[in-house]
């Protein structure tokens, strides 16, 4: 038989370690060697058992004092493992549960050593909804039609016929889980007889076959706040599938998709659009009507405005979900050039061009100064 290691060495602490240091070290090592993290690893299994034994001895002041004085011999009385005389040790899984306060499931994705008798919760559901940019800007209420499990009305979600009572499941004793031995550990799974409810139905409801719920088309109203964007996820609590036999309902998650707009492009809370600018207004200046989400807006066009100029209209963009300032509307003007001119118009446009000369075309003048060497060949 292999000689037992020193308990302080097992936990990796000094002999004068405080109780907090002992507990902290145990938590760290117990997670590392837990069987759920090391399936099939018998070495880790043995170390986990050894840790539980060492921690129980050193976490109790009386047992620790006895161990410091007599070593392992302090616990060899009473048959070397019984509970009499304070020398026995608990199942390491029980010790692990006590130290982690029942919250250790987070390390292993759920499924701790015990499970309370609760009815299973219904499944969460997903719904993809497309809305317009205007609806995203102003907020809107939508009515969704989905197929989901709802409580069975004939049996009032109990699963049994009128007057019938559910009985405690004989397979799991009402716990909803069954256990099986796997070496020194106990593994648990949902009871196949009662499907985790802890109860069985002797006379099932004919409408739901004892499940306490049926599938139906449901209409659900959903308020969509202003400022949402593609990818925004909204949760409608309790509007997923109803749980079996009166279990709590799951949630409905609605994923939003905002349709592309014919005029505006969106970047977060800012909007962008390109608007045609008449040649005459570009040359002489004036006022230009431009579209916006709340109707029409006006911008002042300075004399000689060039194509590609961007005008920013503050807070004419999208609202934000946080309720802060709205984004901006950025308008790019594109100067319109006449494409069909009659003889009279062409003559007048030529006379106009000759009258203004090149000095009234600063962009053209600057370009030719930079590119002069290309034209002097």
Can you describe this structure?
With 377 residues, this protein is an alpha+beta fold. The protein has four domains: 7-108, DnaJ domain (Helix Hairpins, Orthogonal Bundle); 125-164 and 203-258, Sandwich (HSP40/DNAj peptide-binding domain), CATH 2.60.260; 265-335, HSP40/DNAj peptide-binding domain; 344-375, no CATH class. 27% of the residues lie in helices and 25% in strands. It has twelve helices and 15 strands. Helix 2 packs antiparallel against helix 3 (42-58) and helix 3 (42-58) crosses helix 6 (92-99). The N and C termini lie far apart (103 Å).
Write the layout of secondary structure elements.
Elements lengths: L6 H5 L7 H15 L8 H17 L2 H10 L7 H4 L10 H8 L5 H4 L16 E7 L1 H6 L1 E12 L14 E3 L8 E6 L2 E6 L8 E3 L11 E12 L8 E4 L15 E7 L6 E3 L2 E8 L1 H6 L1 E7 L2 E7 L8 E4 L15 E7 L7 H14 L5 H9 L1 H4 L2
Parallel strand pairs: 1-9, 11-15
Antiparallel strand pairs: 2-7, 3-6, 4-5, 8-9, 10-11, 12-13, 14-15
Question: What are the salient characteristics of this protein?
Answer:
single chain, 377 residues, alpha+beta, Helix Hairpins, HSP40/DNAj peptide-binding domain, 4 domains, 4-stranded mixed beta sheet, 3-stranded mixed beta sheet, 12 helices, 15 strands, 27% helix
Oligomer: single chain
Helix % is 25-40%
As residue ranges, the low-confidence spans are 78-89, 102-116
* Pattern of helices and strands: HHHHHHHEHEEEEEEEEEEHEEEEHHH
Would you identify the CATH architecture of the largest domain?
Answer: Orthogonal Bundle
CATH fold descriptor of the largest domain: Helix Hairpins
Approximate shape:
elongated
Main sheet strand line-up: 10-11-15-14
Radius of gyration: 38 Å
Structural domains: how many: 4
- The percent range for strand residues is 25-35%
């Amino acid at each position: 038989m292999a000689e037992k290691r020193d308990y302080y060495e097992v936990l990796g602490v000094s002999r004068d370690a405080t109780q907090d240091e002992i507990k902290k070290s145990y938590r760290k090592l117990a997670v590392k060697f837990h069987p759920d993290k090391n399936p099939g690893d018998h070495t880790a299994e043995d170390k986990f058992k050894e840790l539980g034994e060492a921690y129980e001895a050193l976490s109790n002041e009386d047992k620790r004092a006895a161990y410091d004085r007599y070593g392992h011999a302090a616990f060899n009385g009473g048959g070397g493992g019984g509970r009499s005389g304070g020398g026995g040790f608990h199942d390491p899984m029980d010790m692990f549960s006590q130290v982690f306060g029942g919250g250790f499931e987070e390390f292993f994705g759920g499924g701790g050593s015990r499970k309370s008798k609760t009815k299973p919760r219904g499944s969460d559901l997903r719904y993809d909804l497309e809305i317009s940019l205007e609806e995203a800007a102003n907020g809107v209420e939508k009515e969704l039609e989905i197929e989901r499990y709802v409580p069975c009305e004939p049996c009032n979600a109990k699963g049994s016929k009128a007057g019938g009572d559910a009985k405690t499941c004989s397979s799991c004793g009402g716990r909803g889980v069954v256990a099986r031995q796997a070496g020194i550990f106990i593994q648990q799974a949902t009871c196949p007889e009662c499907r985790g409810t802890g109860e069985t139905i002797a006379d099932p409801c004919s409408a739901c076959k004892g499940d306490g719920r049926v599938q139906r088309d449901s209409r659900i109203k959903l308020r969509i706040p202003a400022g949402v964007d593609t990818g925004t996820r909204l949760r409608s609590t309790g509007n997923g599938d109803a749980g079996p036999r009166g279990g709590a309902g799951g949630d409905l998650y609605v994923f939003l998709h905002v349709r592309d707009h014919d005029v505006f492009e969106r970047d977060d809370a800012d909007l962008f659009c390109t608007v045609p600018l008449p040649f005459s207004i570009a040359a002489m200046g004036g006022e230009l009507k431009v579209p916006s989400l709340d109707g029409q807006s006006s911008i002042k066009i300075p004399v000689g405005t060039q194509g590609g100029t961007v005008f920013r209209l503050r807070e004419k963009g999208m609202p934000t979900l946080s309720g802060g300032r709205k984004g901006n509307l950025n308008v790019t003007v594109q100067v319109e050039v006449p494409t069909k001119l009659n003889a009279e118009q062409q003559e007048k446009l030529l006379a106009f061009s000759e009258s203004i000369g090149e000095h009234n075309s600063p962009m053209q003048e600057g370009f030719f100064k930079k590119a002069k060497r290309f034209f002097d060949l």
